[in-house]
Amino acid sequence: MLLLLAAACVVALVLLLYMVSPLISPKPLKLPGAHVVVTGGSSGIGKCVAIECYKQGAFITLIARNESKLLQTKKEIEKYSVNDKQVVLCISVDVSKDYGHVENVLKQAQEKLGPVDMLINCAGTAITGKFEDLEVSCFERLMAVNYLGSVYPSYAVIATMKERRMGRIVFVSSQAGQLGLFGYTAYSPTKFALRGFAEALQMEVKPYNIYVTVAYPPDTDTPGFAEESKTKPLETKLISETSSVCQAEQVARVLVKDAIQGNFNSFMGSDGYMLSILTSGMSPVTSITEALQQVVCMGIFRIIGLFYLGSFDSIVRRCMIQREKSENTDKTK
Ligand SMILES: NC(=O)C1=CN([C@@H]2O[C@H](COP(=O)(O)OP(=O)(O)OC[C@H]3O[C@@H](n4cnc5c(N)ncnc54)[C@H](OP(=O)(O)O)[C@@H]3O)[C@@H](O)[C@H]2O)C=CC1
Ligand SMILES: CCCCCCCCCCCCCCCC(=O)[C@@H](N)CO
Fold it and tell me: Ligand 2 atom 5: the closest Cα is on which residue?
């Protein structure tokens, strides 16, 4: 009897250890003196992320295509220096085209500023429209920029990070990478893809003390967002209004904090919180409180989510009826 009890205790202890081991929080990354690479660093969220890291004492490499925009942003960032050693390096490259090119420029950056401590994959773009209205080439282009454009820089830095047994890699997904919405047939899959990639990569690199973060920002006031809004279908606009437009500085602050702490999930606001719990699936956890919240809240958030889905369906239906009506009146004219 005693033996049985002892065996049960051992089994319980082993099970507990298995459950708790993935919950151990990593040691925060120290930003002062660190080398942070930000792709898409010349505009919007990427620019604010670069400023946030620079303010905390990091050395920055900005990556984007347009050189004059890069130089202008470099000047802007340099206003926030906290010591006279800090450097902002600019590199013009398309992250989505040629892997060899991306590898070369990252090698150059590491020769100048040392090995990369944190890579933030922010380069990306959105095209919205009804499925049949989008050109087929959009699907390839968005996958290339948003997905492969994050894989290539990560591939170029991972070996050194593993050797050094430290590092952070951040992927900027989107709330549209947590649920598919009207108008986002080309964009959403690229952001979902980042999540799958990040989960697989995190499992590989965790024993090397490298932590991966996926950020899911809501609509954010940036030049990219302004551009996207010009051609957005009415349905997408109305559905998106469910959650408010954020400031890029705010998104950047949260993202950098989560990346430093090594949190897998980075979200903002109350719907961001609900979505992240609801879509946590088999993604890694980085704290016991996070795990508990997922276990307790998932069911109730699903119920709330069903109301959201109902309202989205009704928006789409109303827009369709409206459109058909106006088409009919056009015909009778
Ligand atoms: N704004 C929003 O509402 C949201 C945005 N996001 C995501 O956040 C990221 C940043 O968005 P946002 O700040 O709005 O975008 P912006 O359009 O304002 O900035 C995009 C940046 O990426 C660079 N970039 C674009 N394509 C490439 C490329 N092929 N190679 C290298 N650099 C490139 C741009 O520079 P250049 O053109 O000179 O190359 C620019 O620096 C994107 O991944 C976006 O999907 C996620 C959720 C919401
Ligand atoms: C319990 C569940 C709550 C669910 C709330 C859902 C709210 C949905 C709003 C979706 C907004 C879409 C953001 C896309 C942003 C983006 O990536 C583009 N702007 C890129 O430029």
Answer: 271
DSSP state of 314: H
Task: Flag whether pLDDT at 252 surpasses 80.
Answer: yes
| Interatomic CA distance for residues 41 and 141, integer angstroms | 20
d(CA 302, CA 100): 44
pLDDT given at position 18 = 65
Long-range pairs for 139-147: beta carbons < 8 A, 24 or more residues apart? 139/186, 142/186, 142/187, 142/190, 143/189, 143/190, 143/193, 144/96, 144/97, 145/95, 145/96, 145/190, 146/187, 146/190, 146/191, 146/193, 146/194, 147/190, 147/193, 147/194, 147/197
Interface pTM (ipTM) of the complex?
0.98
Q: Is 225 in the pocket of ligand 1 (CB under 6 A)?
A: yes
Q: Are 262 and 168 in contact (CB under 8 A)?
A: yes
Which residue type sits at 118? M
CA–CA separation, 144 and 161 (whole Å) = 24
**Would you call 191 a catalytic residue per the annotation?**
yes
**117: CA distance to ligand 2 center in Å?**
30
Query: Ligand 2, closest atom to CA 275?
Result: 2
Where does residue 202 rank: exposed (0-12), middle (13-18), buried (19+ CB within 10 A)?
A: buried
Distances from the Cα of 44 to the Cαs of 64, 137, 166, 192, 290, in angstroms?
Answer: 12, 25, 28, 21, 29
Q: Which CATH number fits domain 29-301: 3.40.50.720, 1.10.3720.10, 3.40.50.2020, 3.40.50.620?
A: 3.40.50.720
Q: What pLDDT does 25 receive? A: 80
Query: SS3 for 184?
Result: coil
Beta bridge partners of 171: 121, 214
pLDDT at residue 20, rounded to an integer: 64
Q: What is the pLDDT of residues 158-170, one digit of tens each?
A: 999 999 999 999 9
